[in-house]
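Problem: given the chain below (397 residues), write out its structure.
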Amino acid sequence: MTLLSTKPSEIDLIIIGAGAAGLSLLLALDAADYAGKVMVLERQQGPQNDRIWSFWHSADPREDSLPEYIEAILTHKWQSWSLSADGNEYLMRDTLFQYCSLRSESLSALALERISARENFQIRFNYEVAEITTKGSSVIVSTQEESLVASQVADTRPPALRSQHEGLIQCFYGEEIMCEADIFEPSTVKLMQQLNHSDLGIEFIYILPFSTKHALVEFTCFSLSPVAVSVLKTRLAAALNELAAHTSYTVKRSESAALPMYLINQNRQQHKSHIIYGGIAGGAMRASTGYSFIGSQKWAKQSAYDLVKTNTLSVNVPIPAIYQMMDKLMLSVLRDDMKIGVRMFTQLFKTVPPQRFVRFMSEKASFTDFMYIIWAMPKPPFLRALYRSIRVKIKGE
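Solution.
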């Protein structure tokens, strides 16, 4: 192994991971005209078409909006989304808030285009990070090929799933398919189709329609422990067999993941000088939903600001404490009785107005929005969970 440099100033920042968080930070630094040397290390051999990230975004320019360069590469937008359970469908529609999606390959292409004009930015593919250590005011990032020395490191790799936790695991397997016949409704995202309680936990089909013949279809479940991909594939195959029973289709690509639906411990960030965590590892994902793209944008914007203004990376948790508390309560209720999940999500769609629902999902809720969400929840189990939470906090103090 060779040492690339012993001068920490030669690399100001190493970003580990070229996913949503890592590339968003790189693009935010580019937009802020950061003059330092930045290197992104990615274990994959090149840009991947392995993810479609989705989120709600306001069309009102007065709202906190996405960066223009992100808006320009959005894959698709929808103004309605639905949930179905027990043979009933509940539809939400809004013209102000849109449900948006973005392909990972589009974000990668934009990042590569932007850094091509910058000598101080670089992405290295096929670099597997083996170890990160600190020495004085420097951080040493070791790979199989060499060791790189930097002033600071932003590690955006997803954390390993815990065997012991206070939440759930979101497991999904999806296929992007092209059908010969028109079987999809392109105006509406099926957020939770056929929502049901099963042996796996809470399960549903997620359909992201790009046209009447083209969609990403995923089988998703919220479970107490990870579910084997083979099981998810079997469940998806059964759903596709029913959905596309009278037509043939081809699979363009597939994607799968197991995401932590619990609060990520932030304490470790306080004890590693010059190293911070981003993306899911940095608390950018809503524990009760699995959405993380907007949280990663907030983290990237603040981190870029910190670097430009102070030349340091501060720990910033994108999800406000009030949402973390609400998510923890919701997950506690679900862990007590998974069957109640169908009722909980159905009540949200039946009783909460679309804009209030989206503001809660996007961390923009008002006090009144919170009251609508709380009122929609099953009261006895939530009161029990709240009581337990207060008791634990009192004992801890």
